[in-house]
Design brief:
The radius of gyration is 22 Å and the shape is elongated. It is an all-alpha fold and 242 residues long. The chain has a domain of 158 residues: Helix Hairpins, CATH 1.10.287.70. Helices cover 79% and strands 0% of the residues.
């Protein structure tokens, strides 16, 4: 795939992310605000009216709390920042088209859920084409080097590719997560692996600190794309060698 085609696909993916960010933000932000107000209103009334809660009341409070917590748990619990502002909607869109799908937030309105289907059907193949194009260009260069130095050197090239991936896409980003997120280093490595293999459990999600969310999450988006492309190159080289 030619470099110009890959660049065009990159621009199309960026535009698609911006479209997704705008639409999801427009569809979900207001609904999240309503849920936040409902939760806070219920919690305030409960705490004001009962100085000593019974077991039934505690159970009821937890049930209602979990209902709203499951949808907007990172919004009104410890933060005033919305999960569905423009920047975070772009971040959500990136987890859709890369199929990482953390699951820490998801559309809860009819419009958001309906829009997700065509958005993913177009965005996932578009992102896949871009990553494949990047992988082909890098892989083509690696293949030329392997042909120059025969089979033994080919193994060495694959090893170097893997080590570079390990250092620049896993170990260094994990150190950054350690510093910014407060996670332990082994959890940061675990998160990096789960993300770059697109497993995406959603048990750890970066950028929940309101002060750093926008720029930080955009940087993570770039890390997604580079890391997934690099992973594709490694898998392609391994399969070709085998």
């Amino acid at each position: 795939m030619k470099g110009k085609v890959v660049a065009l696909l990159g621009i199309l993916n960026l535009c698609w992310l911006l479209i997704g960010g705008g639409v999801f933000s427009a569809l979900e932000w207001q609904n999240e605000s309503v849920q936040r107000v409902s939760y806070e209103d219920y919690r305030s009334r409960l705490l004001q009216n009962y100085s000593c809660l019974t077991e039934e009341e505690v159970t009821n409070f937890i049930t209602v709390g979990e209902k709203y917590y499951s949808r907007v748990r990172h919004s009104f619990l410890g933060s005033d920042t919305s999960n569905w502002d423009f920047g975070n909607s772009i971040f959500f869109s990136s987890t859709v088209i890369t199929t990482i799908g953390y699951g820490h937030i998801s559309p809860s309105t009819y419009g958001g859920q309906a829009f997700l289907v065509p958005y993913a059907l177009i965005g996932i193949p578009l992102c896949g084409l871009m990553l494949n194009g990047i992988g082909e260009n890098i892989g083509g260069y690696v293949t030329k080097k392997k042909e120059q130095y025969k089979k033994t050197a080919g193994v060495l090239v694959m090893l170097i590719l893997f080590l570079l991936f390990l250092v620049f896409m896993v170990l260094i980003p994990s150190a950054i997560f350690l510093a910014l997120e407060g996670w332990s280093y082994h959890i940061s490595i675990y998160y990096s692996f789960v993300t770059l293999t697109t497993i995406g459990f959603g048990d750890y999600v970066p950028g929940q600190n309101a002060a750093q969310r926008m720029v930080y999450r955009l940087a993570i988006l770039c890390w997604f794309m580079i890391g997934l492309s690099w992973m594709a190159v490694i898998l392609n080289q391994v399969s070709t060698f085998l």
